[in-house]
């Protein structure tokens, strides 16, 4: 008889007799990713309690019916199933919990290049697996869990997240509201470029905020401000005040409504683009091997269509862009990647603009993203913090969180979309891992690709002789030096590099907020961060339009929109 080691027997015993979770799947849940969540708090559903920080509920993830894995009527979560924050079901302390399962339904996309990845399509909710219409889920169940018990918790995914269409969260419904339609217009735009890439019809949503006096001045043509940011069913919070009739007297929405509709602000068109995709709620507005040609779709297709329909001036000198966080990176990248197409960028708390500071990871010099090792010890790499320095999450745990939500970079979360945007596409149709999501080992070959294509600081340094003259007077960046995600580190690197430039010497403006968290937008020091954030667009529009007028070419229209 073959001898079996004691450790092997213990492992087999643990796997065979530990408590399990058995999930019954409906017919609609045959291709996708199952997520099972444990929570101690029953005040909200467990599916709403998972996040990247240490207070998160406990989750486990299983692929079903994709990438060679067969479909099934039931799926079992056991000791071998990867979890976050705890890595195994057997690590959960005995006690009472609320348990829930959700199945994120995937579809197979047949790309123009012949590859056919399984991905979660956006269903109008902005890529939220726990709120995606059509996703089956179970009602929360209160159970007593004991990892050593020889029993099975059974869940049945007999509920379905309802459709958004026809509800108050549907952009088409918002656009038909009489309080909305005078100033806010909605366009659902089919992109030929994106449709060709994805092998199916793909659409962009465009919210267009029209200036006061638009109808009364039919001969006026207007500058365009592209406001960057995450998916929103309407527009960014400041703009929804217009749709809602101005908000409550005294709040920032009401003040913006009054400033916009009474003509106290410069007359311009503000465009907010919805570009949720199979990897995230936002595309990062650049052309990408995995996400597709969103930069071309927005700049070459959508913006000309918006300007043609709503009397935009339609020239680079009369366009500006701004945004914070994801939108901050997009605003800066848009100006750098389309230098002749825009006449100014205002980027706040931008995502990493230098991959020496990929949040808190140095992709170029660190061998591992999760730990820094000394001769006799190691420390985990922090990812999220409070302004006082208290750590809220580590990079290793954040990657584990996303791996539970989706393998192959399909988490529809932050690290996943960066990889999808920045990486080359692998032979299986998925993004090539820039680092191993389990061990943290960094793939230096992929980093080289990232540097060449998307490291904004590296690109500016490499191409300064041609880019420098085109971005003069156009770059304005703000960040808090206590940024929650360490994004200030990359901004400082960009600032330091631009200070070394010559022919021309960069005149980019940087503003830092001592001790300020994410998302600091700059502004007068006599006001708080919250006050400056509340009137950010009011602060920027006069700066943008004045710069446009001062730099407009001879004979340009700088008068029809000034009334």
Account of the 3D structure:
This protein is an alpha/beta fold and 563 residues long. The chain folds into three domains: 18-160, no CATH class; 171-354 and 456-551, Rossmann fold (3-Layer(aba) Sandwich), CATH 3.40.50; 359-453, no CATH class. The strands form eight sheets. The chain has an eight-stranded mixed sheet with strand order 13-14-16-15-19-20-25-26, with helices on both faces. A five-stranded antiparallel sheet has the order 5-3-2-6-10. Helix 5 (237-243) crosses helix 6 (252-261), helix 12 packs across helix 13 (464-471) and helix 12 packs parallel to helix 14 (488-499). The longest helix has 16 residues, at 294-309.
Write the layout of secondary structure elements.
Layout: H1 6-17, E1 20-24, E2 32-39, E3 58-64, E4 74-77, E5 83-84, E6 95-105, E7 107-108, E8 118-119, E9 136-137, E10 141-145, E11 152-156, E12 159-160, H2 171-175, H3 178-181, E13 184-190, H4 192-198, E14 203-209, E15 224-228, H5 237-243, H6 252-261, E16 269-274, E17 287-288, E18 292-293, H7 294-309, E19 319-324, H8 326-337, E20 345-348, E21 371-373, E22 378-380, E23 382-385, E24 391-394, H9 395-405, H10 414-422, H11 444-454, H12 456-462, H13 464-471, E25 475-480, H14 488-499, E26 509-513, H15 529-534, H16 536-551
Parallel strand pairs: 1-11, 15-16, 15-19, 19-20, 20-25, 25-26
Antiparallel strand pairs: 1-4, 2-3, 2-6, 3-5, 6-10, 7-8, 9-12, 13-14, 14-16, 17-18, 21-22, 23-24
């Amino acid at each position: 008889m073959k001898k079996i080691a004691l450790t092997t027997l213990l492992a087999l015993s643990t796997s065979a007799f530990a408590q399990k979770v058995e999930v019954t799947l409906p017919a609609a849940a045959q291709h996708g990713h199952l997520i099972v969540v444990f929570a101690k708090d029953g005040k909200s559903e467990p599916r709403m309690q998972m996040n990247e920080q240490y207070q998160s509920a406990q989750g486990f993830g299983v692929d079903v019916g994709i990438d060679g894995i067969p479909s099934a009527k039931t799926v079992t979560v056991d000791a071998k199933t990867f979890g976050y924050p705890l890595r195994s079901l057997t690590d959960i302390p005995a006690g009472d919990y609320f348990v829930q399962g959700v199945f994120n339904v995937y579809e197979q996309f047949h790309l123009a290049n012949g590859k056919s990845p399984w991905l979660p399509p956006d269903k109008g909710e902005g890529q939220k697996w726990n709120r995606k219409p059509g996703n089956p889920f179970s009602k929360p169940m209160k159970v007593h869990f004991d990892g050593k018990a020889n029993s099975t918790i059974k869940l049945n995914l007999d509920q379905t997240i309802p459709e958004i269409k026809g509800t108050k969260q549907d952009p088409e419904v918002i656009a038909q509201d009489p309080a909305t339609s005078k100033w806010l217009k909605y366009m659902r735009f089919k992109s030929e470029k994106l449709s060709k890439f994805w092998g199916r019809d793909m659409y962009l949503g465009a919210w267009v905020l029209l200036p006061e006096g638009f109808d009364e001045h039919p001969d006026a043509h207007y500058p365009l401000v592209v406001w960057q940011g995450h998916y929103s069913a309407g527009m960014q919070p400041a703009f929804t005040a217009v749709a809602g009739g101005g908000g409550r007297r005294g709040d920032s929405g009401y003040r913006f409504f009054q400033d916009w509709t009474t003509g106290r602000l410069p007359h311009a068109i503000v465009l907010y683009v919805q570009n949720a995709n199979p990897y995230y709620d936002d595309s990062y507005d650049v052309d990408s091997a995995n996400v597709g040609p969103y930069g071309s779709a927005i700049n070459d297709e959508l913006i000309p269509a918006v300007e043609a329909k709503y009397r935009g001036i339609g020239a680079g000198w009369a366009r500006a862009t701004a945004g914070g966080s994801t939108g901050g990176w997009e605003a800066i990248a848009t100006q750098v990647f389309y230098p002749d197409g825009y006449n100014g960028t205002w980027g706040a708390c931008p995502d990493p603009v230098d991959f020496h500071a990929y949040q808190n990871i140095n992709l170029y010099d660190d061998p591992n993203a999760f730990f820094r090792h000394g001769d006799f010890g190691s420390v985990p790499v922090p990812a999220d913090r409070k302004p006082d320095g208290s750590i809220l999450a580590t990079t290793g745990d954040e990657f584990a969180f996303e791996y539970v939500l989706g393998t192959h970079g399909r988490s529809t979360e932050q690290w996943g979309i960066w990889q999808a945007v920045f990486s080359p596409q692998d032979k299986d149709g998925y993004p090539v891992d820039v680092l191993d999501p389990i061990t943290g080992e960094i793939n230096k070959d992929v980093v080289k690709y990232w540097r060449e294509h998307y490291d904004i600081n590296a690109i500016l340094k490499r191409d300064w002789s041609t880019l420098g003259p085109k971005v003069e007077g156009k770059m304005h960046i703000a960040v808090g030096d206590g940024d929650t995600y360490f994004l200030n580190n990359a901004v400082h690197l960009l600032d330091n590099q631009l200070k070394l430039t010559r022919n021309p010497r960069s005149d980019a403006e940087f503003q830092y907020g001592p001790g300020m968290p994410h998302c600091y937008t700059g502004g007068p020091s006599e006001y708080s961060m919250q006050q400056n954030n509340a009137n950010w667009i009011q602060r920027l529009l006069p700066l943008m339009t004045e710069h446009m007028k001062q730099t407009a070419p001879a004979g340009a229209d700088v008068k029809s929109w000034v009334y």
